[in-house]
Amino acid sequence: MKQNILVELLTFWKNWHFRLLLGMTAKMKFSLPWKSMGAFVTARPQDTTMYAVSADSKGLDIVVGLLADVVLHPRLTDEEIEMTRMAVQFELEDLNMRPDPEPLLTEMIHEAAYRGNTVGLHRFCPTENIAKIDREVLHSYLKNYYTPDRMVLAGVGVEHEHLVECAGKYLLGAQPTWGAVRTVDVDRSMAQYTGGIVKLERDMSNVSLGPTPIPELTHIMVGLESCSFLEEDFIPFAVLNMMMGGGGSFSAGGPGKGMFSRLYLNVLNRHHWMYSATSYHHSYEDTGLLCIHASADPRQVREMVEIITKEFILMGGTVDVVELERAKTQLMAMLMMNLEARPVIFEDVGRQVLATHSRKLPHELCTLISNVKPEDVKRVASKMLRGKPAVAALGDLTDLPTYEHIQAALSSRDGRLPRTYRLFR
Q1: Domains along the chain?
Q2: pLDDT digit string (tens) for 148-162?
Q3: Which N-terminal stretch is annotated as signal sequence (predicted)?
């Protein structure tokens, strides 16, 4: 049986402060059906822009040439720009109507944590800016940020020498559509963690209509500054995040589902009215953010916030050896399972090389994970708890505690919110 070896290539560019243009540039560049090559092409806008191609290894030379042509010589016609504007407009409308608020809350928690700088800038394009982005603006963006020093070409299932030869042939000294590459003073600001709160009052009662509508919920996300992925504490934070775990109250159980994580055992299993509780860890080149996202009925917002703050305080307490080993095993299993897929491998190669100019192999990462001790988790958690919190709140916020009360709870020994007394109810 004949088997084809796939070649996967990607091109990365760092871009920290022009996040509004990522969606538009990525959408516009990949309308090419490369079916004659048996190729699958995709572009994904995140904190880096990735262009990926999967094709038969025999066509490596042609594929690299096509990839270089698409990246360096986009047509950016008026028709493409208008179609992309319509697509971005639709996605913004869909963002406000979708039942899952996680993308919007992630945007809000970053805005609260890094007020007015770097990763705290808007990731989604404001509606009023869509019409302002034209070919001239896109070319200016591409000229400043699509430069060789920000670019990584990675491949899996291909001879290294052949890939280097193709890169020299099609990328080295290539003249892009937007003109000669010149030295520009791009924004290289470091992320400045500020902490704070971002609230969005919204009626969530009609988010999902139908025979079995989703109940009206209020969503809260509380975060604290962690560390960048370049620091040694990144691995202990990753283990801590896995140890917290969490999910929805209706998640299916079973091995490897995280049903023994803290947010399941301490929160979802004990408080039936909690709809979900999940831990997230966002890590960047110069900062990081560890968050807990929870949702519940609007009448129980105060209790929900207090449960979150208590869990943060418990992070700095005693770490059970059994739960730590379980979290480390689950993290290593997830790492190895993800790296079974070739697209994940070459994305991992590209991102690591772009950020650190090197790549840690899977066994090296597993060794670092295995070496994490209970005192490491307690140390990084205690350091994190000394910072100001970032809070994002969405939905009916009538009973939301003040930011000062949340900050006081995270500074206390037990995580309890200050008591409030009312003369009239």
Answers
A1: 6-170 (3.30.830.10), 196-411 (3.30.830.10)
A2: 888 889 888 889 999
A3: none
